[in-house]
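fyi for ur records
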Amino acid sequence: MTFNGWLQILVFFALVILVTRPLGVFMHRVFEGDRQPLPRVFGPIERFLFRLSGVDAQKEQTWVQYTIAMLVFSAVSLVVTYVIERLQHVLPLNPQHFGAVEPALAFNTAASFTTNTNWQSYSGESTMSYLTQMAGLAWHNFTSAAVGMGVAIAVARGLTRRPGPEGAKTIGNFWVDLIRATVYVLLPLSFVLMLLLVSQGVIQTFAGYHELTTLEGVKQVLALGPVASQEAIKELGTNGGGFFNANSAHPFENPTPLTNLIEMVLIFAIPAGLTYTYGRMAKDQKQGWAILGAMAVLFFMGVATCYWAESHANGALHGLATSQSMGNLEGKETRFGVVNSALFATVTTNASCGAVNSMHDSFTPLGGLVPLVNIQLGEVIFGGVGAGLYGMLIFVILTVFIAGLMVGRTPEYLGKKIEAKEMKLAMLYVLIFPFVILGFSAWSAIAGYGTSSLNNAGPHGLTEIIYAYTSATGNNGSAFGGLNGNTPWWNVSLAVAMLAGRFLMIIPILGIAGSMIGKKTVPPGPGTFPTDGLLFIGLLVGVVLIVGALTFFPALSLGPIVEHFVGMSGKVY
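which gave:
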């Protein structure tokens, strides 16, 4: 660990903080303003889409109507992507003449991109045509991110709106939120960022693959494609699916340290900005800063641990004639080094972004533990676009409830009382996550069709299984490596985990929004626990860590933790 390394980490985080306020203000105007920004530019597009889809922008929905609309849209878009994959061999923009994607893999991929997970059980440059990449996958990068943003804003409305004399029942309009998130935020930002990435060497072309002969006389196929347009929304929308199998380690996706920095900032930009948007909606900016502060504490805890671990030698290489004076460089690109590999791994697993610029499977046991734990905490450390905010708000509700028990009064948040119904829904949200991860992991660890996909035995192999289902259920999409996920069992079970981790967790959080929206607010009293200070930030961080530790520590003890101690003894599985 060096001063230069920490300086790079601090510069990255300073850039995130720099964009938080302007982006947060912009998104508040988009979703809650009386007049949206740049109305002459985007207004006609918005009104055209409203007329085309028959949406009345003035008509709001109850939480049930909002949820049904979200589920119907997601289901239809899943089917459309599945059909495109199955028919790609007869559709245009397929210069490599790739065949139809087989059913189980097509289902896995459609579920993956619908849920903003972008898990890939295939090699993009040898499986998906240009049309499938753009119309099937990149399209989902926009819509799945927009769905997450809409849900986060709807939940924020439920918590922050002050009802009138007759109460309130609506939390917004899903179709309006979806269209505005896409038209005002995701599309224009992605277009500008695409041009920026192209200027730095990220490719963008419809040309077919280029065959060449190297200086050694070896024939090589150089994969090309419309990469920059997908790369921009891939990071901005915390999607993570790579155009190439090597993902952001590929020089055509991430050619320089500058593009690496840009892509990391993009991953955190909207999740950070939404905390400021939330503060505006609550009419108390300290509420947004408190949530951002808790996220920042958890981020620095993770990146410090990962950077420290990867700065040390890898025990698996002990005794080999190789120098590890620069830390564990196995599976890392030399143009990024240890610090930017550890930082990228931490950032992408803090958010629900499956992008990787190094192979997590080659990390040290404790270095690989950090990305795994980041996801298992619920990906609330900034989290996915929208998902990070509404996930952290669940922990805010739990924290307020615990604080209420400590002082012996009914817990309240933003002047609204937290009662039994909200706590039941919050606990349902919290319990679904480990149930899916641990249930499928246990199943795959004892079934032959599960373990047959492993390339590693012992605790490392168990870690690969747990990581796969953690990544799928957490809608992250990164892979630990060493696991062949392209089998019927893994394709179907991971798809089910993705769908459960997305929609079975959105439903209870929208239920909380519907329950809270109609509650009357009460002025703070002497016993009211403040939710905008350092004490609350510390308690919120503690609740996130304790819930995660109590849930997953036994499984982690059998995987990366025991692997670390085995490595210290000089043995390797």
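The two ends are 28 Å apart (CA to CA). thats all i got for now
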